[in-house]
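Reading a protein record of the kind used here takes only a little practice. Think of the row as the fold of the chain written in a discrete alphabet. With that in mind, consider the following protein and its fold in token form:
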Amino acid sequence: MKRFWSDVAVTAERGIALDGKPVRTPGRVPLLLPTQALAEAVADEWRAVDGEIDPRAMALTGLANAAIDRIAPDPAAFAAGLAAYAESDLLCYRADAPAELVARQAAAWDPLLDWARRTYDVDFVVTSGVMHRPQPPATIARLQAAVASRDAFILAALSPIVTVSGSLIAALALAEQGADPEAVWLASELDSDWQAENWGEDDLAAPARRARRRDYEAGVRMLELLR
């Protein structure tokens, strides 16, 4: 689709209007945003369209559409899908060698686990290797409750953070402003960075990393705009 509008405005209901006509989601529901800041940011994405619409350049619009069309009809089911990451959170699976990698993982990942311990009064089973180790039932239950308490827009923002980082704990820390977004990004890419440092980066790795970064930053920005 090519740009067909001249004017973009935010309505009194925090919707988006193109030449006075309301924007709707793919499900034909009015695109109404929960905060003025998010509405203005989504409007800016529509203002920035030059020629053909590129959905990759309209990440906030995409997340808002998902919140309304996919998540809002059954937020509990969507939250359960995100909460499942608590069973195999990246932060709980460590290398056993070499010593430098073990130390890097501890330095980047232990503070996030410590934050979750303080915040939710839980503990974690931390193991070496990739074999699954179950977490304490109380830990799973409290992390599930923490996710289930979020509304559809917060869940939409959390989704790319969880899937890109592989860590529900890190995503919750960002939602609660208990961690720095750049530090979380570097923590989630730690293993990939280690491999690139030691064995080089293949031609496909850099574009994939840029795509992950784009999705991650969209989720982080949406969280910030919802506050």
